[in-house]
Amino acid sequence: MLLSRLELTGFKSFPERTVLEFNGGITGVVGPNGCGKSNILDSIRWVLGEQRTSVLRSAKMEEVIFSGTKTLKPTGMAEVNLIIKNNRGVLPIEYDNIVITRRLFRSGESEYYLNKNRCRLKDIMELFFDTGMGPHAYSVIQQGMIDSILSDKTEDRRSLFEEAA
Amino acid sequence: MLLSRLELTGFKSFPERTVLEFNGGITGVVGPNGCGKSNILDSIRWVLGEQRTSVLRSAKMEEVIFSGTKTLKPTGMAEVNLIIKNNRGVLPIEYDNIVITRRLFRSGESEYYLNKNRCRLKDIMELFFDTGMGPHAYSVIQQGMIDSILSDKTEDRRSLFEEAA
Amino acid sequence: AEQRFLKTFDAIEKNYQNVFSKLFENGEAHVELEDPSLPLESPIRILARPGGKKLLSVAQLSGGERALTAISLLFAIYLVKPSPFCILDEVDAPLDDINLVRFLQLIKGFAKDTQFIVITHNKLTMEASDILYGVTMENPGVSKVVSVRFGGGNGDGDNN
Amino acid sequence: AEQRFLKTFDAIEKNYQNVFSKLFENGEAHVELEDPSLPLESPIRILARPGGKKLLSVAQLSGGERALTAISLLFAIYLVKPSPFCILDEVDAPLDDINLVRFLQLIKGFAKDTQFIVITHNKLTMEASDILYGVTMENPGVSKVVSVRFGGGNGDGDNN
Ligand SMILES: Nc1ncnc2c1ncn2[C@@H]1O[C@H](COP(=O)(O)OP(=O)(O)OP(=O)(O)O)[C@@H](O)[C@H]1O
Ligand SMILES: Nc1ncnc2c1ncn2[C@@H]1O[C@H](COP(=O)(O)OP(=O)(O)OP(=O)(O)O)[C@@H](O)[C@H]1O
Ligand SMILES: [Mg+2]
Ligand SMILES: [Mg+2]
User: Fold this and answer.
1) Cβ of C51 under 8 Å from any chain D Cβ?
2) Is the pLDDT of residue B27 over 60?
């Protein structure tokens, strides 16, 4: 399974449609403080079904929608598309390419799509169950997570082990 | 008030007497991971009276005593001396130079000295009361403290304000 | 469920020592259940000893040593249950140059089977990347992505 | 006690805006009591808006923005109640080059009245230092300090 392409529209600091293509190797993401790098990571967690707003550095889910600048109005919706190559048949689905789409409207309504077919959040999460890629993935290490893994005060270390088991 | 000299003996990773001289400007401390830089910071907090072992990254106070290596035996005591120039009369004491000494023995016994005269921990802490230099100093920013200052979960932000008031 | 957890736990423990010693020469690391009789509830303890040093608590380790101790554990878990991709956000920040190089070698080893996305401010990490995306905010509050390539050609943004 | 706290609080608030805008061009920052009627108990809220951006919660700020937001608050407090010395342990780690330079300028401004000890892995910070101590561990587990000077002479250890 390979992340092939990521598209963000109206997600956090990305008001306009932004596309990132990935290959199989090491992709570096660089830029000054506050330019949007960690927001890209958030978008990947979000499209894979993350529901914990704190993990997305937000108090409510509406905060992932582009909230405007001095010159741009807030958008009414956030949409992220993730295209995955199912090149080793890891995912329990017959397609070679899988497109996962998540949308959130300011009204609070959400929409989810698998290969452009409307589905439930549950369907997306079940797709990745047991691949280590779910929203509780141990494969996404955010700024500050090192300390929570080592801390005796949080449950993070234990959940890593439970995810893997 | 100026930190003039710091001497560590048997403190954490400094088994042998180590001396650092400071001038009034910016002193940089550099070196590879794990070489002892933050331990130097710990020694300054400790000699100024820090009693919270967690702030010193320890479970019990005995852990600040050099615990030995494959080739060196643990020491029986940790001692830190801090020499301060009282050049602006900030400290309520008549000397130009003040030497603060703290010792901890493996037995658990502690000794404190002000200018080589035995005193109580309380005397050292009272000396720095109201100078911002006490063990609760907001003037010592440890690795990881940025997050605790911004976190709503800890009391750190409030204690900064209370220290200053 | 208990059996499966214990089986996974043991596999992670075996790998932990291997990965840790790639980052810490002559180092030693273990994970253990504080209460082996309650595997599904017991806290998990980490024991980590950098090379040449004595075993002390994880709290006494330095900032960089802690980062590598946690990174080793994560990679030990990937060996047991490979993740198709792995996203790292500035995990290299507390590392000195020598540890950074070891960390990058570790990543390159894993990169044969795992796709990495690495967010970084570090030039060595940028050089280790196959492709590089630069994110900018020329228009305040509006992020924009440009791709940056090495070895001539597309020199948008940084010339790193 | 309440009066004294409020007096200090207001002074810090005034300084916060000043220091913050030295690090964030056109930025704006405030501290406020969530419950002004209970100054000695109320949680303290931070509001920080980097230049050109809209005001969002502190949680939504980036790693580097958070570091500078906290550093600004600390320095605002030093202005109200100067500390004779200030020890910073790798606070520059999450900063990009541009912010690092601004941070170092801020420090130099304060260094006239405050003595700084700065632990760092960063070359720009090293260059801003008047004296430099190198800490090494040639003998595993045993720390040793050497002084390193710039501009020729004592080139022990690093040649930075
Ligand atoms: N809903 C939103 N609408 C508009 N902007 C947002 C929204 N949520 C977050 N932001 C902006 O995104 C910025 C943070 O971006 P991000 O965390 O990706 O930075 P970064 O590139 O990771 O920086 P660093 O290197 O400092 O970690 C903040 O300045 C914030 O203003
Ligand atoms: N009581 C002790 N006796 C001997 N060694 C100790 C003791 N306490 C801590 N240490 C050692 O000190 C080391 C950590 O030192 P320190 O935290 O100062 O590193 P550092 O230079 O700040 O590194 P980094 O750049 O990674 O933050 C640990 O490796 C630990 O082994
Ligand atoms: Mg970030
Ligand atoms: Mg350190």
Assistant:
1) yes
2) yes
Average pLDDT for C23-44 = 93
CB nearest D158 (choices: B30, B131, B157): B30
Query: C38: burial class by Cβ within 10 Å (0-12, 13-18, 19+)?
Result: exposed
What is the arithmetic mean of pLDDT over A61-90? Answer: 92
- Gyration radius of chain C over CA positions: 19
Average pLDDT score over chain B: 90
**Could you give the percent of chain A with pLDDT greater than 70?**
95
- pLDDT tier for residue A135 given thresholds of 50, 70 and 90: low
| Confidence at D15, pLDDT banded by 50, 70, 90 | very high
**Does the beta-carbon distance from D130 to B23 stay under 8 Å?**
yes
pLDDT, tens only, B61-115: 999 999 999 899 999 999 999 999 887 777 777 778 899 999 999 999 999 999 9
- D27 vs D12: CA distance, rounded Å: 17
Using CA atoms, how far apart are residues C102 and B52, in angstroms rounded to an integer? 35
Closest CA to C145 of C155, C156, C153: C156
**DSSP letter, residue C88:** E
Whether chain B has a CB inside 8 Å of the CB on D106: the answer is no
Nearest to D83 by CA among D44, D43, D47, D110: D110
Q: From CA D87, how far away is CA B28, in angstroms rounded?
A: 10
Q: How close does chain D come to C129, measured CA to CA in Å? A: 19
| DSSP result, C32-51 | EESSTT-TTTS-EEEEEE-T
pLDDT in tens, B118-144: 999 999 888 877 665 665 567 889 988
Q: Does residue D50 contact residue D58 with C-beta atoms inside 8 Å?
A: no
Ligand 1 residue neighbourhood (C-beta within 6 Å): A 12-13, 31, 33-39, 63-67, 143; C 141; D 50, 53, 56, 60-65, 94
Residue C9, CA distances (Å) to A149, C44, C68 in order: 16, 10, 20
Q: How far is CA D77 from CA B26, B65, B125, C84, D62, in A?
A: 19, 33, 21, 47, 23
CA-based nearest residue to B99, from B119, B78, B77: B119
Structure tokens at C89: 């956000």
User: Rg of the Cα trace of chain B?
Assistant: 16
- Residue A148: Cβ within 10 Å count: 14
Instruction: Assess contact for D112 and D103: CB atoms under 8 A.
Output: no
